[in-house]
Amino acid sequence: MSDGHEHTGHEHVPSRQRRRFPGISSRTYEHPADRSALVALRKLSGFDTVFKALSGLLPERSLRLLFLSDSVRVSDQQFSHLNVMLRDACYILDLEKVPPMYVNQDPQPNAMCIGLDEPIIVVTTGLVELLDEEEMRAVIGHEVGHALSGHSVYRTILLFLTSLAVRVAWIPLGNLAIMAIVTGLREWFRKSELSADRAGLLVGQDLQASMRGLMKIAGGNHLHEMNVDAFLAQAEEYEAGGDLRDSVLKILNVLPRSHPFTTVRAAELKKWAESRDYQRIMDGHYPRRDEDKDTSVRDSWRESANHYTTHVKSSKDPLMKLVTDLAGGAGDLGDRVRRGFGGFTNSGQQPPRGPETPGPSGSPGDDQPPRDDS
Question: Is 100 helix (H, G, I), strand (E, B) or coil?
Fold first, then answer.
């Protein structure tokens, strides 16, 4: 994979050929919902005050010392295969400074990117033991994507506030204020996971490996018992199934979570991998970091708004379909009202009239042609 480019800390890269993305901007893979959720979070009352206060108070040095003293730091001497993957991920996404990575003893499969001044990547032994090399490569690319996007700052604050909310639960107003910000942070972080999944795919460049990794996180190391198509069908059933009560339950179920459901993540990633946007990136057409300063905030808002509009219109969720039907019906009715009664008669519908009078058969309006109310 050598291109003659001298890049400090990236001497070890795997032999498999992968496309590299010099100067890539995080805007390339960031999900529109990620950006809009972060903007909404920053507008949340009190967030700026809390953010500035915590930025100076959080014990980041203590956090680094904790991992240094009680976890295994990945290097050429320790977990060397993970070190190769980490350097490779940073090389592909052109992240100049390789973040330190630690392996922490925990049977629960998990990984995170935290830190205020500089990001730290932590993976658990449960995850290392669960995933094969290509699946792990996608996960490390996922975390490097968080680092490149600057997500580690907000993730660290979320971890701290979640712990703080438990400690001050006995203070009614204090707890409410903290939980409002925690809820906003969780909503953003769930969307940021979709962005990082895309970064993981850009690093691994193996959609099947990304899918397998998500399936294993959901169902354990039983690939011989699982099927990608069936797993994705679950996401389809989850989105479309049930009634309005189920739609409300979905919202309540996801609120306390920091990550989206795995089937949803898999479906979102597959959809992006099959899009024209992904193909353009793989062909070398993507936003560069040196162009970030010229990016229009209005354009970002427009892109996010278009995404949500498209998502709501195409969603099979009962609640989303109701919102679409109501919005469409209101717009259609308003247009007809603006055009007067002609708007109704021209569409084949009758204008309002007085009380119904029985037709020849004795039933109301039997002398009128049937109306199509669909």
Answer: coil
Residue 81 CA to residue 252 CA, distance in Å, equals: 40
The arithmetic mean of pLDDT across residues 98-119, rounded, is 93
Name the residue with tokens 């979320």: 158
Residue 14 phi/psi, 5-degree rounding, is -70, 160
Mean pLDDT across the chain:
75
Q: What are phi and psi of 24, to 5 degrees?
A: -65, 135
Q: What is the rounded CA–CA span in Å between residue 36 and residue 42? A: 10
Say how far apart CA 95 and CA 118 lie, in whole Å.
Answer: 12
291 secondary structure, DSSP code: G
- Estimate to the nearest angstrom the gap between the alpha carbon of 264 and the chain centroid: 9
pLDDT, position 85 = 97
Dihedral angle of Cα 181, 187, 191, 197, to the nearest 10 degrees: 90
Which amino acid is residue 353, in one-letter code?
R
- For 33, the 3-state DSSP assignment is helix
Secondary structure element (H or E) that encloses residue 92, with its range: helix 80-92
Q: How far apart are CA 1 and CA 16, in angstroms?
A: 7
Residues 118, 115: Cα–Cα separation, whole Å? 5
Q: Which tokens is 64 given? A: 């680094």
Q: What is the pLDDT of residues 334-345, one digit of tens each?
A: 454 445 444 444
Strand partners, 116: none
Per-residue pLDDT, 242: 56
- Please give the helix or strand (H or E) that residue 320 lies within, else none: helix 318-339
Beta bridge partners of 358: 364
The size of the chain, in residues, is 374
Does the pTM surpass 0.90? The reply is no
Catalytic positions are 143
Q: What is the pLDDT of residues 145-175, one digit of tens each?
A: 999 998 888 888 887 777 655 554 444 545 5
Question: Cα–Cα distance between 87 and 121 in angstroms, integer?
Answer: 12
Judged on CB neighbours under 10 Å (0-12, 13-18, 19+), 37 is: buried
Residue, of 298 and 61, whose pLDDT is higher? 61
